[in-house]
Amino acid sequence: MSYIELKGISYKYPVGDEKVLKDISLSLEKGKVYALIGANGAGKTTICNLIRGFIPHFFKGDLDGEMLIEGRDIREWEMGDLAQKMGYIFQNPFTQISGTKDTVFEEIAFGLENLRVEVPVIKERVAEIIKLFGLESLQEKNPQQLSGGQRQRVSLASIMVMDPEILIIDEPTSQLDPQATEEVFKIINIMKQRGKTIILVEHKIELIAEYADRVILVEDGKVAMKGKTKDILSDIKAMDHGILLPQYALLGYEMQKNDRLHEIPVTESEAIGVFTKWMAGKEN
Amino acid sequence: MEKKNVILSLYPTTKLLMILLIAVSVFIIPSYLYAYAMFLVCLVIAAMGNVTKEFANLTIKGLFSLCILIFVLQSFFYPGTHVLWEWGFLAIKQEGIHFGLTLTSKVIAVGSSLILFFRITPVKDFVYSLEVMGLSPKATYVVLSTLTIIPEMKKSSQVIMDAQKTRGVETEGSLMVRLKALLPMITPLVLSSVASTEERAMALEARAFTVNKRKTSIYSIEKTGRDSFIRVLLLVLLILLIVWRVAL
Amino acid sequence: MKRGLKHDFSLIAIMLIPIGVGLNVAIAQLVQILRLPIWLDAIGTIVAAMVAGPWVGLVTGGSTNLVKSIFTPTELPFALSSMAIGFTVGMLSKKGMFKNFGKTIVSCLIVTVIAVLISTPIIVWVYGGISGSSASAMTAVLLASGQRLVQAVITSMGLLELIDKSTSVILAYIIVNKMSDRYLSKHNYTQSFIKSNKKSKVA
C-alpha cells in the first residue's frame, strides 16, 4: 500500500468547462521529498489542494478517481484529522499570519490551541520549535511587523509545531529575496532530515536539484514526466515541457557536444565530481 | 509592571460593568449637571489608569467639537418662547439652551465612557473575556483580525496610490480629474484583498481553526477578589441611583 | 433555498468581514486624500454583501462602526444604518438586482432610501439634528430658512446619500464584475456575477 496514492484523478472547478487535472496517477512514498514542477496554471497547486483534502472538502467541483492517504479515501477523512496529518505552507507570506496574535510565540501556538493541547505542553513545543528554527530573536515580536522572509519562517514553524507527517509547501519563496529563500530551505532541509514526507512546488530548479528526491513534471493537467530528481533534471526531454534544466546540466550538455562526459550533473557537488573526473581524463 | 495599576488590572468585564453603569446612570438621573459630572468621573478614572492624555485627546477631538455644534444649533433652532438674544431671524431661546445642555451632556457622558473603556481595556483582553463567556472563536477572529487588517490595508492603499501615480493617474486638479482617479485606485485594492480571503481561509484551516468549538489559550487573565468587590459596589451604586431617582 | 445562517457564514465568507471593514476604512481615507466631497465609506460592506449575502453584509456594516467607535464613539449609533445597508444590498443581490446595470441603478435608489430612513431618526433623536458630517451644514441652512427639523435632515441627508450610496454601489458593481469566476463560485450569492452563467443564458 502506498502512503499517498492518486488513481486516475480528474478534476473540474465548479465554473468553466475545462478539466484542470486529467487522469493523474501518482504513488508517493513516506519520508521522501517530492518536487512538483511545470508552468504556471499546469495544475501543481490543484494537486496540492487535492492531497491536502481542500478538494473536495473546501472546493466544490467534479472530482473523479481515487485519492488515498494511507489507503483511506480523502472523502472519508475528517478535516480535523487532515489538519494534524498534513501541514500546508502557502506562497503569500501575508495571508498566513493569523492576524489575531501579538507575539510570534503566540502565533506559533495558535494551531495547538485550536487542537486543544494543554497549555504547558503548548509552551514546551513552541519553545522547542523556536529553538530548532533559530527564531529566538523574533519570538517576542509582533508578527505584523515581520519581513516577508521572517513571516514565511514563522509560518513554517506554526505548521511544524503541529508535527504533521506530511508537509505541502506551495512556492514558499516566490516572493522572497535570495537570502530569505536560503533560510527557508534550511528549514525545509531540517524537516527532510526529520523524516517528513514533503511535497514541494518550486520554480527555482537549482534548489529542487539540491533538495528533492523525486520530481513530478506537470503539464496541462497531466503528469508529463516523473522519476528520480537526477534522472529528470538531467533529461533533455524535460526542456520540451517548458522546464529549464539546472545550469550544471546545461553546461554538461554543452560539453557533451565535443567530449564525452560519463554523466550529466544537476547539483553543484555532482558538477564538481563530474568535471574533476573529466579533467583527469583529459590529462591522461 | 503596569498590570499592578488599580484600574488597568481589573478584569475586562468588571471594567465594562463600571462603564455601563456610568453610561446608563445618565438616563436614570435626568439632570445635565449629573451627566457632566459623569464626564469628570471618567476623567478621574482615566487619570487613575494613566491614560489621561489619550482620553483627553479623543474626547476633545471626537466629542467636544461635535457637542458645541449641537449646542449652538439647538439654542438657535429649538422651538421656544423665552428669547434671550435676537439678531435678524436668529434667536437664542431659553428652552433651546436647556435642551442643548441636556442633549450634549448625555452625548458626552456616554461617548466619554466608551472612549474610556477602550483606553483602559486592550481589545485582546476584552474578546478573551467574551470568549470565556462563550463567544465563538470565529467572532473573536473577526474582531481581532479586523484590527490588524485595517493598518495593513491603509498601507497597501498608499502603495497602490503611489504606483498608479507613477503610471500617470492624475490625483491633483479639478474635481472631475480626482473623481476619475478613484476607480484605478480602489479596483486593485478591492480585488487583491478580496482574492486573499481564499488563501486566508485555507491557511486558517491548515491550522485546525475549525476543528474544535472550544480551544485552549496560552494567554490568560484572571478575576481577583477586587473584581468581586467592585462588582458588588457597582450594584449598590445602581440601587442607590434608582432610589435617588424615585425619591426625587 | 432554506439553508440557514451557518451556510451563509462559510469560512471564506467570514474572512470577507475583516476585509470589508478594512476596505471601508482604507477607501474612505483614499477619498479624503483625493479631496472628494463624498464619503464612500461603505464600499467594503457593499462588496461583501453582494458576494456573501445579507447576513455577512449586516455583520460587516455593524463591525465597521464598532471599530470606528473605539476612537470615535459618536459613530456607534450609525452601526444600525450600516447594518441596514449591508443587509439590503445582500437581499438585493439574492434577488438578482445586480444582474445588469439598469437593475443596479434601481438598487442604488433602494439603498439610498434605506440609508436615509435609518439615519434620520438617529440624527434627530440622538444628536438633535447635527451629526458633524457634511450634511450637518446643509441641515443648519435649511433650518435657518425655516424648515422643520426632520424635514431639513431628510432633505440634506437624502441628497448627499443619493450621490454617495449610488457611487458606492456602482463602483462595487463594476469591481465585483471584474472578479474571476473561480473566486466568485466559492461564494453563495454570486450567481448574477458569474460570467459563464451570463454567457450560457445568452446562448
What distinguishing features does this structure have?
heterotrimer, A: 284 residues, alpha/beta, Rossmann fold, 3 domains, six-stranded mixed beta sheet, four-stranded antiparallel beta sheet, 11 helices, 39% helix, globular, C: 203 residues, mainly alpha, Arp2/3 complex 21 kDa subunit ARPC3, 9 helices, 75% helix, 0% strand
Task: Write up this protein.
The complex is a heterotrimer of chains A (284), B (248) and C (203). Chain A is α/β, with parallel strands linked by helices and 284 residues long. Chain A has three domains: 1-42 and 55-77 and 213-231, 3-Layer(aba) Sandwich (Rossmann fold); 78-203, P-loop containing nucleotide triphosphate hydrolases (Rossmann fold, 3-Layer(aba) Sandwich), CATH 3.40.50; 246-284, no CATH class. In chain A, 39% of the residues lie in helices and 21% in strands. Chain A is built from eleven helices and ten strands. Chain A has helices at 44-52, 54-57, 79-85, 104-114, 119-132, 148-160, 178-193, 205-211, 229-233, 247-256, 268-283, and strands at 4-12, 21-28, 33-37, 62-69, 72-73, 86-89, 166-170, 197-201, 214-219, 222-228. In chain A, a hairpin with an 8-residue loop joins strand 1 and strand 2. In chain A, helix 4 runs parallel beside helix 6 (148-160) and helix 6 (148-160) packs parallel to helix 7. The longest helix of chain A is centred in the middle third of the chain and has 16 residues, at 178-193. Chain A is globular, with a radius of gyration of 21 Å. Chain A starts with a strand and ends with a helix. Chain B is mainly alpha-helical. Chain B folds into two domains: 2-128 and 220-247, no CATH class; 137-206, no CATH class. Chain B contains eight helices and two strands, in the order H-H-H-E-E-H-H-H-H-H. Chain B has a two-stranded antiparallel sheet. The two termini of chain B are 45 Å apart. Chain C has a single domain (8-190), classed as Arp2/3 complex 21 kDa subunit ARPC3, CATH 1.10.1760. Chain C is built from nine helices and no strands. The mean pLDDT of chain C is 90. The two termini of chain C are 26 Å apart. In chain C, helix 2 (11-33) crosses helix 3 (43-71) and helix 5 (101-127) packs antiparallel against helix 7 (149-177). Chains B and C meet through helix 3, helix 4, helix 6 and helix 7 of B and helix 2, helix 3, helix 6 and helix 7 of C.
